[in-house]
Amino acid sequence: LHCRRGRLSGRIVETEAYPVGDAAGHAFRDETPSIRSLFLARGYAYVYFTYGSCFMMNVSSEGPGVGAGVLLRALEPLEGIRLMERRRGTNRLLDLARGPGRLAQAMDIDKRYDGADLCAGGKLWLGSGVRRAGQIGASIRIGITRDVHLLHRFYEYGSPFVSGPKRLRE
DNA sequence: AAGAAGATTCGCT
DNA sequence: GCGAATCTTCTTA
Is nucleic acid strand C under 7 Å from A128's C-beta? Predict the structure, then answer.
């Protein structure tokens, strides 16, 4: 993400998939204005506010007209760590972007970026990895009440920036 | 019009 | 580990 004071970036080390037909996904219901970004073509940001305090960011993964997305759950901070520390109110590297709400706060992501094209050279974008991912683990997802058994949470195995269930897929 | 749930976080014990 | 905080959106009456 580009901002006035510089650049904020990180490696995505934990995600959750909410594919078509997933009862836990926000796009499971009919399309409404608040979830329209999930129905855009692949690679758009869907940012929503929840629990009275947190923004969370997804990347639309199907579309157009088909609702599905991938939740960003954790980053390994790379650039702009000072700025992230200030936004987060802590200087503990492991706590800067571990968890979807913290990730958004560290990156200064809010509703302004809902619907943003992440591949169009705007302020917020997805880039290809500088460092290759390690082994990828899969587990059940966190904090949902429907379709709880699906192994749709993916994370870099062994990363200290990931919290929660750690189990390698067979 | 009112109520409940929600892809969480933080602080306290 | 547990529970409160906090507010938007959708559902139901």
Answer: no
